[in-house]
Amino acid sequence: MLITLTTDFGNKDGFPAQMKGVILGMNPDARIIDITHQIAPWNIAGGSYILKTCCRYFPHGTIHVAVVDPGVGSGRRRLVLRSGGWIFIGPDNGLFSPFLKGADEIREITNPSLILPSLLESGHHSTFEGRDVFAPAAGWLSADRKMPMAEFGPEVTDPVIIKNIHGLISSDGSFITGEVLHIDRFGNCITNISGEQLKNNTGLAASVEAAGRRFGLARFYAEVSDAAPHALLNSEGFLEIFFFKGNAAVTLGLKPGDPVRVVFA
């Protein structure tokens, strides 16, 4: 069984390794692939973007464990869900927003027999449910493919959906407001404004506003050679701000959550 891990843990500490140890302790035959552990800390929307753009390239039946979880240890629920042929495991904080609509089954993980004993014995709120709750859930499901998800806990009918999963089109269609979701290793700033939102205005000239500056759209990175930021639609179909052979995030001082606007003329 194939299991992926997506977190904001980074690689400095042993957090991803502990999760893998728990999974392999339950199912030594599991195949574990790291999607990334470099999500910006607490950036739920960015983690959701990475999951959405990566999971579809994995075979159906893959278990995707994702942990970007500023509410760890609080009353927020722990989820396991089936959607689109995959299984997702992680916190109920909007991380799985792209997969909730039309999901086949969503369950809260409450069964104490499926949680790592160290969490139950500690008597205090956990700071590492990735290891103590989500990794065991993946381990159990990968070891027993016939295990019904109902074993984990009650059905969830009102999962959390993040509000900024897409940009907002103005009532008169003259502009779209959005925000930076994710910054990749090149400093490109991926926004939540999609090509679908732009396509109805393809006959109009558009400019992008961010960090107090306005710039135009390009078709690909090398189309522009001037030392200025531009925007394009990336291969995932989202508006991306870039600086050719430079770092747009550093140049513009952008970070996840910062506002972006597309204006049509």
Order of helix and strand elements from N to C terminus: EHEHEEEHEHHEEEHEEEEHE
Q: How much of the polypeptide forms β-strand, as a percent range?
A: 25-35%
Structural class: alpha+beta
Figure out the total of helices.
7
Low-confidence stretches: none
Q: Mean of the pLDDT scores?
A: 91
- Estimate the global geometry from the Cα principal axes: elongated
Number of domains: 2
CATH class of the largest domain reads: Alpha Beta
Q: What's the main sheet like?
A: 8 strands, antiparallel
Task: Describe the fold and architecture.
Helix content is 22%, strand content 28%. The strands form 2 sheets. Strands 7, 8, 9, 10, 11, 12, 13 and 14 form an 8-stranded antiparallel β-sheet that branches. A 6-stranded mixed β-sheet has the order 2-1-3-5-4-6. The longest helix is centred in the middle third of the chain and has 15 residues, at 129-143. The chain is an alpha+beta fold and 265 residues long. The protein is elongated and about 60 Å long. Strand 10 and strand 11 (213-215) form a beta hairpin. The protein folds into 2 domains: 2-151, S-adenosyl-l-methionine hydroxide adenosyltransferase, N-terminal (Rossmann fold), CATH 3.40.50.10790; 166-264, Beta Barrel (Elongation Factor Tu (Ef-tu), domain 3), CATH 2.40.30.90. The chain has 7 helices and 14 strands.
